[in-house]
Design goal:
This protein has one domain (7-148). The chain is globular. It is mostly beta strands. The strands form 2 sheets. It has a 5-stranded antiparallel β-sheet. It is built from 1 helix and 8 strands. Helices cover 5% and strands 40% of the residues.
Length: 149
């Protein structure tokens, strides 16, 4: 396999035009989103279309499918950029993951196909009986986790 690459899923852009994802309840019921961790060299990136258990980490305290991602603030726009960031950090509590991992996939857990949103990468790591916290950036047009220009 190839290295995981940070990217917004190309399919996500088409899904937006088709109304697949709702990050707030402004127009219809808000979807639920999850974040799943993946081992190194799984080839995740722009071509990732959906959540898959293939290559997902496993270990004590980790549940397949990952953890819920909270979008408590509706998407906004400024300076020609539409953006949204989870309103809380993504936290994996009390996990032991002995196989190196370096990517998190955010996906729509409500959608029938568990459609991919984005892949975010970081340095490869393992964790023993600890908490992994993925700190979210500021929710603005320059820093938001998801930005469309």
């Amino acid at each position: 396999m190839t290295a995981n690459a940070q990217s917004m899923a190309t399919s996500f852009k088409q899904d937006l035009l088709n109304g697949v994802h709702a990050f707030s309840a402004s127009y219809r019921a808000q979807d639920t989103f999850n974040a799943a961790l993946y081992t190194t060299n799984q080839g995740l990136g722009a071509g990732t279309t959906a959540y898959s258990a293939t290559g997902e980490v496993s270990g004590t305290g980790y549940t397949a499918g990952g953890v819920a991602v909270t979008f408590g603030t509706p998407p906004a726009n400024a300076n020609g950029v539409a953006y949204v960031t989870p309103s809380a950090n993504i936290v994996f509590n009390n996990v032991t993951l002995s196989t190196a991992f370096d990517a998190v996939l955010i996906y729509n857990n409500t959608a029938a196909g568990k459609n991919a949103v984005s892949v975010h990468t970081f340095g490869a790591q393992t964790i023993t009986a600890g908490t992994l916290t993925l700190t979210m950036p500021s929710n603005d047009s320059n820093n938001a986790l998801l930005r469309l220009a």
